[in-house]
Design brief:
Length: 122
């Protein structure tokens, strides 16, 4: 059942391209996916690849786990891979420092925005 679902998600991703998101399963394991999410232009996330640690208020710096509701409490079987990747991309565009997993990063993000009057890191 899970394999059928992941194959359907892959067909959907290939058929309905979304700007800024590219994803595919590993050639030898349909349960391991590689994704490239292009961050918003003119930010530090513009060239992010999730192959390394990410300094972000909603990402655990130790293991890279992402704090987004649909990956935890609000996950439902109706969510497909593309929905999850879109949620992660939105989190990159609009971090949530009021609900951080990485407090130090959230404080830096909050203070940088207040001092510089801008919408994100410089």
């Amino acid at each position: 059942m899970a394999i059928r679902r992941l194959r359907r998600d892959l067909r959907n991703i290939l058929k309905n391209k979304v700007d800024g998101i590219d994803a595919s399963p590993s050639p030898d394991n349909l349960f391991v996916w590689n994704a490239i999410i292009c961050g918003p232009e003119d930010t530090i996330f513009e060239k992010v690849r999730f192959t390394s640690k990410l300094f972000h208020p909603n990402v655990w710096h130790d293991d890279g786990l992402i704090c987004v509701d649909i990956l935890k409490d609000e996950w439902t079987p109706s969510l497909d891979v593309l929905s999850i990747l879109n949620s992660i991309r939105i989190l990159l565009i609009d971090p949530s420092p009021l609900n951080p997993t990485n407090l130090e990063t959230a404080l830096l993000y909050r203070d940088d925005r207040q001092i510089n009057g801008v919408g994100g890191f410089k």
